Amino acid sequence: MERISVLLVDDHQVVRQGLRDFIELHDTIEVVGEASSGEAGVQLAHELLPDVVLMDLLMPGGIDGVEATRRITAVSPTTRVIVLTSFADDNRIFPAIKAGAISYLLKDVSPNDLIHAILAAQRNEAVLHPEVASRLMQEVSTPRSSDGPLDQLTEREMDVLRLIARGKSNKEIADELVISEKTVKTHVSNLLSKLHLADRTQAAIYALRQRVVPMDEA
Predict the structure, then answer these.
(1) Shared-domain flag, residues 102 and 166
(2) Mean pLDDT of all residues in 82-92
Protein backbone atom coordinates (compact mmCIF):
# COMPACT_ATOMS: atom_id res chain seq x y z
CA MET A 1 0.00 0.00 0.00
CA GLU A 2 1.44 3.37 -1.03
CA ARG A 3 1.92 5.69 1.92
CA ILE A 4 0.50 9.21 2.16
CA SER A 5 3.32 11.74 1.71
CA VAL A 6 3.30 14.76 4.03
CA LEU A 7 5.26 18.02 3.92
CA LEU A 8 5.65 19.98 7.17
CA VAL A 9 5.78 23.79 6.91
CA ASP A 10 6.36 25.52 10.26
CA ASP A 11 9.04 27.92 11.43
CA HIS A 12 9.53 26.11 14.76
CA GLN A 13 11.89 23.15 14.50
CA VAL A 14 10.57 21.65 17.74
CA VAL A 15 7.04 21.65 16.33
CA ARG A 16 8.17 20.01 13.10
CA GLN A 17 10.12 17.35 14.98
CA GLY A 18 7.16 16.58 17.22
CA LEU A 19 4.88 16.24 14.21
CA ARG A 20 7.37 14.03 12.37
CA ASP A 21 7.90 11.76 15.38
CA PHE A 22 4.20 11.14 15.81
CA ILE A 23 3.18 10.96 12.15
CA GLU A 24 5.84 8.40 11.33
CA LEU A 25 4.43 6.05 13.97
CA HIS A 26 1.55 5.62 11.52
CA ASP A 27 2.65 3.08 8.92
CA THR A 28 0.48 4.52 6.11
CA ILE A 29 1.90 8.07 6.37
CA GLU A 30 5.42 9.39 5.83
CA VAL A 31 6.99 12.84 6.17
CA VAL A 32 8.85 13.58 2.94
CA GLY A 33 10.11 17.05 3.75
CA GLU A 34 10.22 20.03 6.11
CA ALA A 35 10.29 23.78 5.54
CA SER A 36 10.71 26.65 7.98
CA SER A 37 9.12 29.39 5.85
CA GLY A 38 6.27 29.86 3.41
CA GLU A 39 8.66 30.45 0.53
CA ALA A 40 10.63 27.28 1.26
CA GLY A 41 7.37 25.38 1.68
CA VAL A 42 6.15 26.43 -1.76
CA GLN A 43 9.45 25.43 -3.36
CA LEU A 44 9.51 22.02 -1.66
CA ALA A 45 5.87 21.38 -2.48
CA HIS A 46 6.59 22.04 -6.16
CA GLU A 47 9.55 19.66 -6.06
CA LEU A 48 8.04 16.86 -3.99
CA LEU A 49 4.32 17.12 -4.92
CA PRO A 50 3.24 15.73 -1.54
CA ASP A 51 -0.25 14.39 -0.93
CA VAL A 52 -0.73 16.61 2.13
CA VAL A 53 0.92 19.77 3.49
CA LEU A 54 0.63 20.74 7.16
CA MET A 55 0.83 24.52 6.99
CA ASP A 56 1.49 27.06 9.74
CA LEU A 57 0.16 30.56 9.04
CA LEU A 58 2.61 33.00 10.63
CA MET A 59 6.19 32.47 9.48
CA PRO A 60 9.17 34.69 8.71
CA GLY A 61 9.77 36.00 5.22
CA GLY A 62 7.54 37.56 2.61
CA ILE A 63 5.14 34.64 2.14
CA ASP A 64 2.76 33.71 4.94
CA GLY A 65 0.82 30.46 5.19
CA VAL A 66 -2.20 31.81 3.32
CA GLU A 67 -0.16 32.89 0.30
CA ALA A 68 1.87 29.69 0.42
CA THR A 69 -1.37 27.69 0.40
CA ARG A 70 -2.64 29.66 -2.60
CA ARG A 71 0.55 29.04 -4.56
CA ILE A 72 0.77 25.35 -3.70
CA THR A 73 -2.83 24.54 -4.62
CA ALA A 74 -2.55 26.55 -7.84
CA VAL A 75 0.41 24.52 -9.07
CA SER A 76 -0.53 21.13 -7.56
CA PRO A 77 -4.33 20.82 -7.27
CA THR A 78 -4.02 17.26 -5.97
CA THR A 79 -2.00 18.41 -2.94
CA ARG A 80 -4.26 18.98 0.07
CA VAL A 81 -3.26 21.71 2.50
CA ILE A 82 -4.20 21.41 6.17
CA VAL A 83 -3.73 24.59 8.16
CA LEU A 84 -2.23 23.84 11.59
CA THR A 85 -1.99 27.04 13.57
CA SER A 86 -2.54 28.68 16.96
CA PHE A 87 -5.02 31.23 15.61
CA ALA A 88 -8.78 30.90 15.21
CA ASP A 89 -9.71 34.49 14.39
CA ASP A 90 -11.87 35.25 11.38
CA ASN A 91 -9.25 37.28 9.52
CA ARG A 92 -7.10 34.15 9.30
CA ILE A 93 -9.68 31.37 8.92
CA PHE A 94 -11.54 32.71 5.89
CA PRO A 95 -8.51 33.80 3.84
CA ALA A 96 -6.90 30.38 4.43
CA ILE A 97 -9.98 28.50 3.26
CA LYS A 98 -10.41 30.80 0.28
CA ALA A 99 -6.77 30.17 -0.60
CA GLY A 100 -7.53 26.47 -0.92
CA ALA A 101 -6.93 24.88 2.50
CA ILE A 102 -9.10 21.80 2.85
CA SER A 103 -8.95 21.70 6.66
CA TYR A 104 -8.22 24.14 9.46
CA LEU A 105 -6.89 22.83 12.77
CA LEU A 106 -5.50 24.44 15.88
CA LYS A 107 -2.26 23.25 17.43
CA ASP A 108 -4.10 21.93 20.48
CA VAL A 109 -5.58 19.20 18.26
CA SER A 110 -4.97 15.70 19.59
CA PRO A 111 -2.45 13.53 17.73
CA ASN A 112 -5.18 11.05 16.79
CA ASP A 113 -7.38 13.83 15.40
CA LEU A 114 -4.44 15.12 13.37
CA ILE A 115 -3.93 11.67 11.84
CA HIS A 116 -7.65 11.52 11.13
CA ALA A 117 -7.43 14.88 9.32
CA ILE A 118 -4.50 13.70 7.19
CA LEU A 119 -6.33 10.52 6.19
CA ALA A 120 -9.48 12.54 5.49
CA ALA A 121 -7.56 15.04 3.34
CA GLN A 122 -6.28 12.20 1.20
CA ARG A 123 -9.95 11.32 0.58
CA ASN A 124 -10.65 14.99 -0.23
CA GLU A 125 -12.69 15.40 2.97
CA ALA A 126 -12.52 18.49 5.18
CA VAL A 127 -11.91 18.49 8.92
CA LEU A 128 -12.38 21.65 11.00
CA HIS A 129 -11.47 22.37 14.60
CA PRO A 130 -14.76 22.80 16.57
CA GLU A 131 -14.02 26.47 17.26
CA VAL A 132 -13.32 27.08 13.59
CA ALA A 133 -16.47 25.22 12.54
CA SER A 134 -18.51 27.41 14.89
CA ARG A 135 -17.07 30.58 13.37
CA LEU A 136 -17.79 29.32 9.87
CA MET A 137 -21.40 28.58 10.75
CA GLN A 138 -21.78 32.12 12.10
CA GLU A 139 -20.23 33.49 8.91
CA VAL A 140 -22.49 31.55 6.56
CA SER A 141 -25.69 32.26 8.52
CA THR A 142 -26.17 35.54 6.62
CA PRO A 143 -26.49 35.36 2.81
CA ARG A 144 -24.22 37.70 0.87
CA SER A 145 -25.30 39.26 -2.37
CA SER A 146 -21.67 39.58 -3.45
CA ASP A 147 -21.31 35.83 -3.93
CA GLY A 148 -21.50 34.40 -7.45
CA PRO A 149 -25.01 34.21 -8.93
CA LEU A 150 -26.76 30.85 -8.63
CA ASP A 151 -28.75 31.44 -11.78
CA GLN A 152 -25.69 30.42 -13.80
CA LEU A 153 -26.12 26.84 -12.62
CA THR A 154 -28.21 24.24 -14.38
CA GLU A 155 -30.87 22.37 -12.44
CA ARG A 156 -28.63 19.30 -12.18
CA GLU A 157 -25.66 21.41 -11.00
CA MET A 158 -27.92 22.82 -8.29
CA ASP A 159 -28.79 19.27 -7.24
CA VAL A 160 -25.09 18.44 -7.01
CA LEU A 161 -24.37 21.61 -5.02
CA ARG A 162 -27.09 20.76 -2.49
CA LEU A 163 -25.63 17.30 -1.99
CA ILE A 164 -22.10 18.68 -1.63
CA ALA A 165 -23.42 20.94 1.14
CA ARG A 166 -24.80 17.84 2.85
CA GLY A 167 -21.34 16.30 2.83
CA LYS A 168 -22.00 13.68 0.16
CA SER A 169 -19.11 12.11 -1.75
CA ASN A 170 -19.12 11.87 -5.56
CA LYS A 171 -20.16 8.22 -5.33
CA GLU A 172 -23.05 9.04 -2.98
CA ILE A 173 -24.16 11.89 -5.25
CA ALA A 174 -23.99 9.58 -8.27
CA ASP A 175 -26.08 6.94 -6.49
CA GLU A 176 -28.70 9.46 -5.34
CA LEU A 177 -29.04 11.16 -8.74
CA VAL A 178 -28.67 7.88 -10.67
CA ILE A 179 -25.80 9.16 -12.80
CA SER A 180 -22.15 8.11 -13.19
CA GLU A 181 -19.35 9.36 -10.96
CA LYS A 182 -17.67 10.76 -14.07
CA THR A 183 -20.77 12.87 -14.74
CA VAL A 184 -20.78 14.05 -11.12
CA LYS A 185 -17.14 15.14 -11.45
CA THR A 186 -18.04 17.11 -14.56
CA HIS A 187 -20.93 18.85 -12.76
CA VAL A 188 -18.69 19.66 -9.78
CA SER A 189 -16.00 21.11 -12.05
CA ASN A 190 -18.58 23.20 -13.92
CA LEU A 191 -20.27 24.63 -10.85
CA LEU A 192 -16.95 25.49 -9.20
CA SER A 193 -15.91 27.33 -12.35
CA LYS A 194 -19.21 29.21 -12.68
CA LEU A 195 -19.21 30.28 -9.03
CA HIS A 196 -15.48 31.10 -8.98
CA LEU A 197 -14.83 28.67 -6.13
CA ALA A 198 -11.65 26.67 -5.58
CA ASP A 199 -12.93 23.40 -4.15
CA ARG A 200 -15.77 21.44 -2.54
CA THR A 201 -15.19 22.98 0.89
CA GLN A 202 -15.78 26.45 -0.50
CA ALA A 203 -18.79 25.13 -2.44
CA ALA A 204 -20.35 23.74 0.75
CA ILE A 205 -19.79 27.02 2.60
CA TYR A 206 -21.20 28.97 -0.36
CA ALA A 207 -24.30 26.74 -0.47
CA LEU A 208 -24.97 27.28 3.22
CA ARG A 209 -24.43 31.02 2.94
CA GLN A 210 -26.88 31.23 0.06
CA ARG A 211 -29.40 29.02 1.90
CA VAL A 212 -29.30 26.47 -0.93
CA VAL A 213 -29.97 24.00 1.88
CA PRO A 214 -31.06 24.85 5.42
CA MET A 215 -28.12 24.71 7.84
CA ASP A 216 -29.86 22.06 9.97
CA GLU A 217 -29.89 19.76 6.93
CA ALA A 218 -26.20 20.19 6.10
Answers:
(1) no
(2) 83
d(CA 117, CA 52): 10
Q: Which of 104, 138, 172 is the endpoint of a domain?
A: 138
Q: Which domain holds residue 26?
A: 4-138
3-state helix, strand, coil in the chain (%, to 5): 55, 15, 35
Q: Residue 157 maps to which CATH number? A: 1.10.10.10
- Identity of the highest mean pLDDT range in 2-11, 89-98, 147-156, 164-173: 2-11
* pTM for this entry: 0.66
Looking at the fold, whether 164 and 108 belong to one and the same domain comes out as no
Considering only CA atoms, which of 66, 100, 63, 106 is closest in space to residue 80? Answer: 100
